[in-house]
Automatic annotation (TrEMBL), chains A, B:
Cofactor(s) of this protein: Mg(2+)
Pfam families, A to Z: polyprenyl_synt
Alphabetical list of CDD domains matching this protein: Trans_IPPS_HT (cd00685)
Official protein name in the record: Geranylgeranyl diphosphate synthase, type II
GO biological process, one term: isoprenoid biosynthetic process
Protein species of origin: Spirosoma endophyticum
Keyword field: Magnesium, Metal-binding, Transferase
Length: 323, 323
């Protein structure tokens, strides 16, 4: 089975999903954000996990789309909170319409996510929704922690990992767990899938932080150094703040507190501090650690090896991405 | 059975419900808004409807609280959208904390509502959640319509009734329907309960509009005439705008467009226009019509007459309220 079959099934369902019609201000933003594209990573993981244990993976398509709708709901609300002007190169919903519409459309999207998840067979519905609800609350917890970190300079590595685990990774873990649940896999198996998704997810987010500084500008989609310019509290900056001593610490603090600076110069200077402190190697080691743990979790999942390879190849692509 | 037993059971559950702990900025606002009080009308309706058909009404307590949490979620988000400074005489969440926290806490509340509803027995879970989700989406549709009406002067009576039906009444209908569903009542019965709640709900909201103008100032909690001062598009104003002709129409339009006016004078003048047009009688007739239809729906519900009386007495109190 090629991933293209899963992608086609998802695209087909995406095109046929009716979120609602009236009033249009409520439902047009949902269609808009769902059509902005994206890798559809989460629902693909769900379908691949279902396919591990059953040929009838199509019964997971609508619930998988529920996970994608939930993810896009979090993007719509996060963009309001972050006052982000653009999402995937297009205007964010609160910019194209307004803040109130972005709040209310997002609310309906969260309801829509549950509506899609209600297509899970009734004997599996309660546990699947309980785990989804716990995960959804955790994603909100992660977003709140992320906002709290903006005004703190003493965020520890452990706190940061906990934040990205909640904000990003638990949903990747749940996407895989859901696939297993729908296919009727046992508890041990769904736990391995969840842990695998979570570990890959943490590695994935740390790689995001790394690429922002050390990515190849010809391959990386965004401006290299964007996080440095914005003083974004990434894994790299948190490590540097904890490890820098003496004059290096002073220089880093100086760059973080300057209000008037040349962007290129700041990126170069902070990157050079990271280089001196060996932050790149340290981050790469942590990324590899999480990816290794994730693939070890997948190793524990008992399933047909050809089917497992579809999932593992897909995870490898996520791991090896350059953008 | 006295309603006090239901109220006690709800209060007890309210006190023991854990919404979550960390980070506190996310969960403190939930405890705050849930502790502001209120009539707990919706969960009481659920418990009374369950009690119509079974002694085991306590199994409905947690799902009933889910409806109350959902209702308070809508208040938290509506207050952001309406920029309301106060809710039940206390600071609104976005004023006491900030807008971002009110968005995100509200999001978790919607998840919490589903978590409480997951306590419905598994054989009834899927239909109960499907109907809840449809209702939740409709409440959002009603709120969007309400916002759209703010900038329109040509809102028809039918559009207005449709808006309050969605924004307020469907949730009262669902609260009763849910009680029936949990008790295992048949489809015809739950439909009568839903329709009854919906009709009472529309009457209830129209009475709110009426009391704002014709309420007894010594009994009405808010300032009489508040809606007139704010040009709020109520049933009374919409009727007056449609019925006024000639000089009366000119006078009404004049009051609606003045930016500088004496509040008492405006309230007196607009009320006098309503009097001339017979708006009070017309509104009272519509309220009675909806209440009559609601009680007729309840008449169709086949249940023990003592148990039905508990529900009907409670509905009468809602109907006869002066504040």
């Amino acid at each position: 089975m090629s991933p293209a079959v899963f992608i086609d099934a998802l695209q087909n369902e995406l095109q046929h999903t009716q979120y609602g019609q009236h009033p249009p201000e409520l439902y047009d933003p949902i269609r808009y954000i769902m059509n902005l594209g994206g890798k559809r990573m989460r629902p693909l993981l769900t379908l691949m996990a279902t396919y591990l244990f059953t040929d009838d993976w199509r019964k997971a398509v609508r619930p998988a789309l529920g996970v994608e709708v939930f993810h896009n709901f979090t993007l719509m609300h996060d963009d309001i909170m972050d006052q982000a002007p653009l999402r995937r190169g297009q205007l964010t919903v609160h910019e194209k319409w307004n803040g109130n519409i972005a709040i209310l459309s997002g609310d309906v999207m969260l309801v829509n996510a549950y509506q899609l998840l209600l297509n899970i067979e009734s004997d599996k519905l309660a546990p699947a929704l309980a785990r989804f609800s716990r995960t959804a609350a955790e994603v909100c917890e992660g977003q709140q922690m992320d906002m709290n970190f903006e005004t703190r300079w003493d965020v520890t590595e452990a706190e940061y990992i906990d934040m990205i685990r909640l904000k990003t990774s638990v949903l990747l873990g749940y996407a895989l767990e859901l696939g297993g649940l729908i296919a009727g896999a046992d508890e041990e198996t769904t736990r391995h899938l969840y842990e695998g998704g979570m570990n890959i997810g943490v590695g994935f987010q740390l790689k995001d932080d790394l690429l922002d500084v050390y990515g190849d500008p010809t391959k990386f989609g965004k401006q290299v150094g964007g996080d440095i310019i914005a003083n974004k509290k990434t894994f790299l900056l948190i490590e540097a703040l904890q490890q820098a001593k003496g004059s290096v610490k002073d220089e880093l603090t100086d760059w973080l507190t300057r209000t008037d600076f040349d962007k290129g110069e700041k990126v170069q200077a902070v990157t050079s501090i990271y280089d001196q402190l060996g932050i790149r190697q340290l981050t790469e080691a942590r990324i590899n650690d999480y990816f290794t743990r994730g693939f070890a979790n997948f190793d524990q999942v008992k399933a047909d090896s050809d089917r497992k390879n579809v999932l593992i190849q897909f995870a490898r692509q996520l791991v090896e991405r350059e953008s």
